[in-house]
Description:
Blueprint: E1 2-8, H1 11-18, E2 31-37, H2 45-56, E3 66-72, H3 83-99, E4 102-103, E5 109-111, E6 121-126, E7 135-141, H4 155-170, H5 175-196, H6 202-211, E8 217-224, E9 227-236, E10 239-242, H7 257-266, H8 277-283, E11 313-315, H9 318-322, E12 336-343, E13 346-353, H10 354-363, H11 372-383, E14 387-389, H12 414-429
Antiparallel strand pairs: 1-3, 2-6, 3-7, 4-5, 6-7, 8-9, 9-10, 11-14, 12-13
Helix pairs in contact: 1-2, 3-4, 10-12, 11-12
Amino acid sequence: MIGKAKAISYGINDLRYIMGESRNKKHPEKINFICCRHLPQGLDAMGVWESMQASLEGHVKLKNSLIRIELSPARENTAHFTFRDWEGLWRDFMEEFDRQTIRDKNGKVRSKRTNLAGSKGVIFLHEESKGEVPHLHGAFCRVDEDGNINNDHDIHLRAQHAAEAVARRRGWKTAMDVRTGNAEHISSVCEAVLKAMPEWSWADYVRRVESADGGRLQVKARKTRWGPVKGYSIIQDGISYKASELGSGRNLTYPKLAETWRKLHSTAAQRPGERPATQQSAVNSKETIPSPLEPNDKKQPQAWKPMQQPATTNALSSQEAQTRPGIDYTAMSPGCSLIDIDVDGTEHRLYLPQHVLDFFDGEFDDAEILNWEPLANLACAYFAALLAPDAPSSGGGGSSASDSGWGRKKDEDDMEFARRCAEQAMMEIGVQVKKKSRGIHR
């Protein structure tokens, strides 16, 4: 069962929607009155609103004057419900809703108790939604009959906790149970799609997932300045599931999709005299199995435009950089993304590890740092060994990339070296923090 709650300012419009008077309601005959609190029965939406206005008198600064609540149990749990059963479900929910005092991890009160039971409100049953899954809508005045304001801080958590408490009390599935089951189903669909794909292709994967399961699934990619796609989610019935929630061991996340496809096909049956699909693909060029981080189309985004580097750095040629043992970022490899780096006016096309790019993406947040672009460009150039600072960093050591002694330690992993590169870039250029606007008050 799912519970939602929100304090809103458009009270009269919401009441018209809940009570079936809105023009957007195509089947008002499928909307039924369940009960009300501190109001006479038979009032229309305007009558309910005017009565609430009387309770709101003296609270002119209260912008969000109505609490809107939606309670959606699973269809199988309410198949034989009467109106009286629905009313009993609502009373149980309201009791749990008002019972809570939400505290933080230190025990400090974040949200005091509410008093919906002592506030004017109406509850209606809607059965006209897509799939005709019945659910309850409630609307309550923010000010109770004693003149106290119902707290709306963390009100969405209050509704979730109340719905889960009622579901557990009645032996029903909670929202988390439903979400876990849906995630397992989506995972099985994705894995079936990967098994059916003769070749790996991100575009084909998206198309097949959205065509599977009766068209109920939608793939939503998250894009970033580092490359065409950073990650993705799958939406089912309006609910989003991150790829990290799916599969086992994060095997359905964006960077691991191509490898998961290869593993699934490595166990495929081999016809006599024919190589398995993975071996056939390996014989072909790399373009036959593009990485999920390298789209099929020829258009490749550029991470940054050409820029002038600080005079305090020493540029290294791509050939010099590739002579370093164990470093080769000019060729595509699993888990890497394509980016373009500018060094003294020369553009270098490289493939850097996605987790390193994600780290730089968070370290140089464009929402907070004004000069994020030159910082990110320089940090990537350091990481790819296209540049070396004149003076060694405080964390330097290992094999040197130049006379400065800068370089990656033999036992240093990607993230440790990336952190040093980011620190060195900030030392060279400096960080320009964006000023936060406080707004204009009239």
